[in-house]
Write a structure and sequence with these properties.
By secondary structure, the protein is mainly alpha-helical. It has a domain of 67 residues: Endolytic murein transglycosylase (Dna Ligase, domain 1), CATH 3.30.1490. It has 6 helices and 2 strands. Strands 1-2 form a two-stranded antiparallel sheet. Helix 4 packs antiparallel against helix 5.
Length: 166
Amino acid sequence: MTRNGIRGFSAGVLITCAVFAFFYYVVFNNGNQTAAKSVVRQTPLTDATVTQYLTDHHRKAIDVDVYNQWMASAGAAAKKTQAKPAASSKPQQNQPVSYNLQIKSGMTPSDISAQLVNAKILPANQKVSFDQYLHNSKLDQFVQLGTFKVSSNMSIQKIAQVITNH
């Protein structure tokens, strides 16, 4: 195709688009409808609507000062509980925690590791290590569905062996 042929084809496409646009917006649309926009009607924000929302969602509004006092007392309570084990004269023995890990269809290795961290089987700082171990060892393909008994004294490799049957 020559240069003039390409220019002619391009001009034809532009003219065709202009004709279609003209008929769409003027003839078929009667010229009185603009491009469609999604309009969301919102009720005005009033005390009544806020109160209704809070009631419907079982929530309660509190003052900023009350919230700050609550946060301060929660922080003090957390510091107090952290200080108690250090103050005791006997070292606490860490008892292994057992957990029935339930793996369902569609769960990812990240979902499994999050479940293990929530159950205190894995420390939070080992979540990524567990995910990486499954991925790097190509065991993430072999995770079995079902319920598996795991405990906190198991290594990442042992937990992976249990849930993959490898």
